[in-house]
Design a protein that fits this description.
Largest sheet: 2 strands, antiparallel
Structural class: mainly alpha
Mean pLDDT: 82
CATH class of the largest domain: Mainly Alpha
Shape: globular
Number of domains: 3
Strand content: under 5%
Length: about 350
């Protein structure tokens, strides 16, 4: 009996090489090979498939955010430990233990005035916002964040609608794209800090100016991403639709728009954070007293006596932007949950 040629896979156990030409034996070999392949696929799915599911993708996002904050916290306190002011902890974990530390270096940016300890910020968030009030700083900032998020949501929706509309026009009209797209790009070269007072003077103080500023920062990424997304379909799919005498609206609705959804959500995640930034920036000159922008201005004026309040406000503002991003991410996972299966 001769050995199988080099490079050929051996037959499964129980199958005689001499019977390799027998159709029944060949079918048995093929069936066993298929079973092994299926088992391998299921094994890979058991390891990786959980992370590819909608819940797995959301879990990855949550873990990434937790890891980011953990790294920032460690680096923050490590910087304080190396170059901050001397500090002492008393009653560690409710015991009589204490710890006193004298940093080996001295850096101005690591002092308690410039960079308070994280536990000092936590204590400030739990303390009353003012001495004469019972409301904690955290409760006050959550209410301010809710008001700012409401403004940002309006700007986000308006900016997204404007961006999708402009991209749709540009895709169907080369003339409009050549005429208007350079101005769309040039609009983002103007610093929003310089533009915000002009908008407030033009449209007055209040919600309208804040929404316009938020919309201004939102429409640009949506426009650029949607132009790319609406042009991403396979040219053969477009030609097939034209061969059926499909209208532009039918091609847009059935081919271009579905293909652009992943590009749209990528832009929406950027626009979500940008809308919150725009709302916060617009609240200060816009005269809005209920939002995070006014809180940042107020606590900045009190920085010498209470730097922890300003840092706490910055932390809540960051969490507000992240929460808006997470909401968009959840919607993205739910909308695109079946796209990978369909492509497979």
């Amino acid at each position: 009996m001769s050995a199988p040629p080099p490079g050929d896979a051996p037959f499964p156990p129980g199958v005689d090489v001499a019977e390799a030409d027998d159709p029944t034996a060949a079918a048995d070999v093929e069936a066993r090979a298929d079973a092994l392949a299926t088992g391998s696929d299921r094994g890979a799915e058991a390891v990786v498939g959980r992370w590819s599911s909608p819940g797995g993708r959301l879990l990855r996002t949550a873990l990434a955010l937790v890891a980011f904050f953990a790294v920032v916290a460690v680096l923050w306190e490590a910087f304080k430990w190396l170059a901050g002011d001397p500090w002492r902890l008393e009653g560690i974990l409710g015991t009589s233990l204490s710890y006193e530390h004298f940093p080996p270096f001295r850096v101005l940016q690591a002092t308690d005035l410039q960079l308070p300890h994280l536990w000092s910020i936590a204590e400030a968030l739990a303390a009353p916002v003012q001495r004469s009030q019972e409301t904690s700083l955290f409760t006050y900032l959550v209410g301010a964040a809710a008001y700012t998020l409401a403004e940002a949501l309006i700007g986000f929706l308006l900016g997204s609608a404007i961006g999708i509309a402009l991209a749709s026009v540009f895709v169907h009209s080369r003339l409009a794209e050549r005429a208007l797209l350079p101005y769309v790009i040039a609009s983002q070269t103007i610093p929003i800090v310089a533009l915000a007072p002009i908008i407030v003077v033009s449209f007055g103080r209040g919600l309208t100016s804040v929404v316009i500023i938020s919309t201004y920062l939102t429409f640009f990424p949506v426009t650029i991403a949607m132009v790319r997304g609406l042009r991403s379909p396979d040219p053969r799919a477009l030609e097939l639709m034209r061969s059926y005498a499909a209208s532009r609206w039918a091609i847009y609705r059935k081919v271009r728009l579905p293909a652009s959804i992943p590009y749209l959500f990528t832009a929406l995640k950027i626009a979500a954070a940008a809308s919150v930034v725009g709302a916060i920036i617009g609240e200060a000159p816009g005269g809005v007293k209920e939002g995070l922008g006014r809180a940042l201005v107020n606590f900045n004026q009190q920085y010498i006596t209470g730097p922890e309040k300003l840092w706490g406000t910055i932390l809540v503002a960051a969490l507000a932007g992240i929460s808006f991003y997470v909401v968009v991410r959840i919607v993205e996972v739910l909308v695109l949950r079946d796209r990978g299966r369909q492509e497979a």
